[in-house]
Design goal:
Elements lengths: L4 H6 L13 H12 L4 H14 L3 H16 L5 E3 L4 E2 L4 H9 L18 E3 L4 E2 L3 E2 L4 E3 L2 E2 L4 E2 L3 E2 L4 E2 L3 E2 L4 E2 L6 E2 L9 E2 L4 E2 L3 E2 L9 E2 L4 E2 L6 E2 L9 E2 L4 E2 L3 E2 L9 E2 L4 E2 L5 E2 L4 E2 L3 E4 L2 E2 L3 E2 L4 E2 L2 E5 L2 E2 L5 E2 L4 E2 L4 E4 L7 E2 L6 E2 L1 E2 L1 E3 L18 H15 L2 H17 L3 H21 L15 H34 L1 H22 L10 H7 L9
Parallel strand pairs: 1-3, 2-4, 3-7, 4-8, 5-9, 6-10, 7-11, 8-12, 9-13, 11-14, 12-15, 13-16, 14-17, 15-18, 16-19, 17-20, 18-21, 19-22, 20-23, 21-24, 23-27, 25-29, 26-30, 27-31, 28-32, 29-33, 30-34, 31-35, 33-36, 35-39
Antiparallel strand pairs: 37-38
Helix pairs in contact: 2-3, 6-9, 7-8
């Protein structure tokens, strides 16, 4: 920007400033806004800056129009708004400023594409509400390191390819950051941005390659909202720090979605309910402080849960999960209570879950329960019902995992799971389904049955454990020698029949006795001489 290059170079040498750039008297206040928490002092600092800018509003408008016209007549055609400190504009003033430059279209909407220039908002400062509602920005828009200290509204806006908010700061009291129903092209970056106010991408549409790597989301009220957002391929939230409630309900993802090293740190549920995932979804080294819910979601490829950091009593809720095409899960999670599979078919045509830990991969699946005391036994059964609602569901899960083990040739592990499955089936059939009777009731039916029959169940279990190998060998012996045993059974019968046949053969007819004659003659009372 020719008329301000000198100002830009000398802005740190003096306290003077032009209508675009801030000098030393702004520098300290802007640092305060970036570093202070949103509180009384922060609000006073921002209000003081706004008052300083008020007298230069008219000068800013005239210089801005002149600068844009100069850019439009040049060959470089880059509208560089770097370090601009925009004074407070109303919605109408802000839109009219751009329309006067020819950036309007039928219906009064601002279309920056008509200017046919690249736009940089690098380190730009917004101190009061700014509205870009239904604007069309086109390709190549950069808000890197922008300092946004007021509500900013992009509702319904359209971006082309390459949009960047890298290291931008969104920080203000009241209102929110509105990207609802925004349409993005390919290449959207919010890397290392600091977001201190509620932000919404509700219904937004993203292309491919979207990055929130290292982004910080932290505010006391409101949520991080990606409800019904649509993403293309290559979505990265790696090492993002999310300290506020987050919802992706109803969102749609393409392939390659990554939450590697992501920190979720709040007390409410992390919602991915009703989400459609493609292939290559990674939750690895992810911090989960509360339940991660994928209720009624679907998977079209591989979803990985590895090295998950569970806090408190957090669980992964995969209830009624649908596997589409080659959808499957790989996990090294070894504690059964951490994953809730209720209603999910883990063995559909082929295994849909693969346990990837190299040693003791199904610890918690096949080793439960050990020889507990009577009280521990009852508590464990009650806990299963609390997790899944019924022993029938718990039994189904064991059966599903057993089938997976058998499919992968792990017959010894499958045998252990089968024993557990039979425990639950026996108890369920003898004691009823064991479903929760009402909300908050985690008891398994009538406790009196288990308590009174526990010694018998425990004895049967021990007896079966000790004799199962003998029984298995006996069955193998009987089946393999069945024909040999049958021959021993039939041989005596053949011998008897052969003896009787010779006795009654016509070629060997002895003299009739009166008794035989009576029998042959039908008992007519005479003797045939």
């Amino acid at each position: 920007m020719p008329q301000c290059r000198k100002c830009e170079r000398e802005t740190y040498k003096s306290s003077s400033y032009c209508a675009f750039h801030y000098g030393r008297e702004f520098e300290e206040d802007l640092k305060k806004l970036a570093e202070l928490e949103i509180a009384e002092e922060w609000v006073k600092t921002r209000e003081a800056l706004i008052k300083k800018l008020e007298p230069i509003k008219s000068e800013f408008i005239s210089q801005f129009k002149a600068y844009v016209k100069e850019v439009l007549s040049s060959q470089k055609r880059i509208l560089d708004l770097s370090y601009f400190v925009f004074p407070a504009f109303t919605k109408e003033e802000w839109a009219q400023l751009w329309r006067d430059l020819g950036a309007d279209e039928d219906g009064g909407r601002v279309d920056l594409r008509r200017l046919n220039v690249g736009i940089r908002f690098y380190r730009v400062v917004f101190l009061e509400e700014t509205r870009f509602i239904f604007w069309n920005f086109g390709d190549g828009v950069f808000f890197d390191k922008a300092q946004i200290y007021a509500t900013i509204n992009f509702n319904g806006a359209q971006f082309g390819n390459k949009v960047s908010f890298v290291e931008a700061i969104f920080k203000f009291d009241g209102g929110d950051i509105n990207f609802q129903r925004v349409k993005f092209g390919d290449g959207v970056w919010f890397d290392k941005a600091e977001i201190y106010s509620p932000i919404s991408f509700n219904g937004a549409q993203f292309g491919n390659q979207v990055s929130f790597v290292g982004t910080i989301f932290t505010f006391d009220e409101g949520e991080v909202n990606f409800v019904k957002a649509k993403f293309g391929d290559g979505i990265f939230f790696d090492k993002a720090q999310i300290y506020s409630p987050t919802s992706f309900n109803g969102a749609q993802f393409g392939n390659q979605v990554s939450f590697v090293g992501t920190i979720f740190e709040f007390n409410e549920e992390i919602n991915f309910n009703g989400v459609k995932f493609g292939d290559g979804v990674f939750f690895a080294a992810t911090n989960i402080p509360s339940n991660l819910s994928l209720f009624y979601s679907s998977i079209g490829g591989s979803m990985i849960f590895e090295r998950i950091v569970f806090k408190n009593n957090a669980k992964i809720l995969l209830e009624n999960l649908t596997f589409i095409s080659d959808g499957h899960i790989r996990t090294d999670i070894q504690t059964m209570e951490r994953i809730i599979w209720k209603g999910s078919n883990l063995f559909q045509d082929h295994p849909r879950v693969f346990l990837t830990a190299e040693e003791d991969a199904i610890h918690g699946w096949d080793r439960w329960p050990p020889r507990f005391s009577q009280e521990d036994w009852q508590n464990r059964l009650g806990k299963l019902v609390e997790l899944w609602g019924s022993l029938e569901e718990a039994e189904r899960i064991y059966r599903q995992v057993r089938l997976i083990m058998e499919y992968n040739g792990r017959f010894s592990d499958a045998g252990e799971l089968y024993i557990m499955e039979m425990y639950l089936r026996t108890i369920r059939l003898l004691n009823g389904d064991g479903s929760k009777r009402n909300s908050g009731d985690s008891e398994m039916g009538d406790k009196s049955f288990i308590l009174s029959n526990y010694p018998l169940i425990f004895l049967l279990r021990n007896s079966f454990d000790q004799s199962k190998h003998v029984v298995r060998q006996l069955v193998v012996f009987i089946v393999s020698n069945l024909l040999f045993l049958l021959s021993f059974m039939i041989l005596p019968l053949v011998s008897v029949w052969d003896f009787l046949r010779k006795k009654i053969s016509p070629s060997f007819r002895p003299s009739f006795t009166p008794t035989m004659a009576y029998s042959e003659g039908g008992g007519r009372g005479y003797v045939d001489l």
